[in-house]
């Protein structure tokens, strides 16, 4: 509890001066109240049972945005959520804390961003949770949604696309200080999206990453679990009228320089069509489908190899909207069936023991107001 009070005090220390000196300050937020039910096979007798069934506040963002000048903006966001990892039943973590400097670099439409910010990899940075689930790169732990770093990002001339180059810690927004001591290597990212004609977007991302450090600080001996990663992604989006289709291919290559027998690669893809019914029936309803496949069969550890398929069907009812027609009040329903190929997966996946049917219903609401 004491640590949370310190975080709240820190937020106040940052927020109050920002509001006093800013040209404009906006306070916003969004909250996700969710019911989750998951069923699968019992380890005791292989019968189908309900394994999870609960209500929770899975996300609760409070967002402060300040405009210091025409070229300088800042954002500070905290995430409050239900968790059983802390005795109080609630968690609090920093999500974003960055400043955008436009026109600081003498390149048209380029912005320098400094601080805790989005990771511009694959669909993870523009994922708006049309479905309740995470972006594939986040779901399969290829990249983390936010991290501490510095990026140059901007738009190509004539609306031809966008780009980003960044250097990050690499461990993600949940780690800092003592948790970074084992990895002093910075990670590098490049992302490019091209829009050759309206409605068609194609692009890709490349990022390096590492886990732990190559040699121990104490005696300079090799760390067997030290890992170097090369992450790649390709994205295709087709949007025409009420139809919006996303496709993504992801590859993750892992090298263990101190134990090459552990080297392996994983890959997967996602296909997600969205049908927006508003222009057809006058009510803002979305019908969404999603198919994922993630392949970890190259993993040399037999117990960890698997081939997963996941099919999701979803419906969104956007009840109210803001002035930009973004949903302010949204009801979502998702049903996901996850299955594992027994021939390609480890022994623990046999007989459908890790297959699961998950149903989630979510009430999501947002607000945003100018307070200065």
Structural class: mainly beta
Strand residue percentage? over 45%
Approximate shape: globular
Helix content: under 10%
* Number of discrete helical segments: 3
Give the helices and strands as they follow along the chain.
HEEEEEHEEEEEEEHEEEE
Question: Which stretches are poorly predicted, pLDDT < 50 over at least 5 residues?
Answer: none
Describe the protein's topology.
Elements: H1 2-21, E1 24-41, E2 48-69, E3 72-82, E4 90-102, E5 110-118, H2 136-139, E6 146-155, E7 161-168, E8 187-197, E9 200-211, E10 227-240, E11 243-255, E12 264-276, H3 278-281, E13 285-295, E14 307-321, E15 327-340, E16 356-370
Antiparallel strand pairs: 1-2, 1-16, 2-3, 3-4, 4-5, 5-6, 6-7, 7-8, 8-9, 9-10, 10-11, 11-12, 12-13, 13-14, 14-15, 15-16
Structure summarized in a few sentences:
This protein has 372 residues and is mainly beta.
Write structural notes for this entry:
- The chain is mainly beta and 372 residues long.
- The chain contains 3 helices and 16 strands.
- The protein has helices spanning 2-21, 136-139, 278-281; strands at residues 24-41, 48-69, 72-82, 90-102, 110-118, 146-155, 161-168, 187-197, 200-211, 227-240, 243-255, 264-276, 285-295, 307-321, 327-340, 356-370.
- The chain has a 16-stranded antiparallel β-barrel.
- β2 (48-69) and β3 (72-82) form a beta hairpin.
- The chain is globular and about 60 Å long.
- 25% of the residues are buried.
